[in-house]
Amino acid sequence: MGVEPENTLRSFVHAERAGMDAIELDLHLSKDGALAVMHDADVDRTTDGKGPINEKTLSELRELDAGQGERVPVFEEVLDAVRSPVQAEIKDAAAARALAEVMLRRDLADRVEVSSFHDEAVAEIARLVPGVRTVLIASRWQSDVVDRAKAVGAATLALNIRRLTLEVAEQAHAEGLKVIGWVVNTQDHLRLARALRLDGATTDYPEIRRTGRFTA
């Protein structure tokens, strides 16, 4: 989203061409049950429309401009537009079942990792899709965050890099969990991610991967 319209096919293609290891996207359900790719619950910030996604049909979402003429994509369109591994974040817990149906139909457990802030969504997708890799996301967390991840069967914790400490990273690693830092958009945060020995990081600027090799 730092260099292209957020959550659009254009942005995902850019990320793939830039050599990123995976593409992260966000999922909400439309009024008629489509898996719409958008970060916010409302369309106001990222399109020229207004109102909640779950009050709009897919046809209505298609009429919106998501930036530079891009349209709001659905999940399967992203899968067809790029070949990269995908991390699909369930923003609306109700989207878990719809995502599971697509993953089972297209046999996506190896390609698609599923993440969410919602413990129940992580647990449900793990129940519905055998072998799926899951990620519990947290911005502000208590001392039980590692136990929460284990309780819902998550293999990875994705934590706010601004609050992530060595203690939490080491605790997670000791319990066999991977740790991802988000959002790593500066060289300082990239240095921190490496100092904490994180297993990965998300960024809005794919080029940081190239420049960071020499400066972080």
Automatic annotation (TrEMBL):
One matching Pfam family: GDPD
Gene3D superfamilies in alphabetical order: Phosphatidylinositol (PI) phosphodiesterase
InterPro entries, per database record: GP_PDE_dom (IPR030395), PLC-like_Pdiesterase_TIM-brl (IPR017946)
Annotated GP-PDE domain residues: 1-213
Family matches, as PANTHER family: GLYCEROPHOSPHODIESTER PHOSPHODIESTERASE, CYTOPLASMIC, GLYCEROPHOSPHORYL DIESTER PHOSPHODIESTERASE
UniProt-recorded name of the protein: Glycerophosphodiester phosphodiesterase
Organism: Streptomyces sanglieri
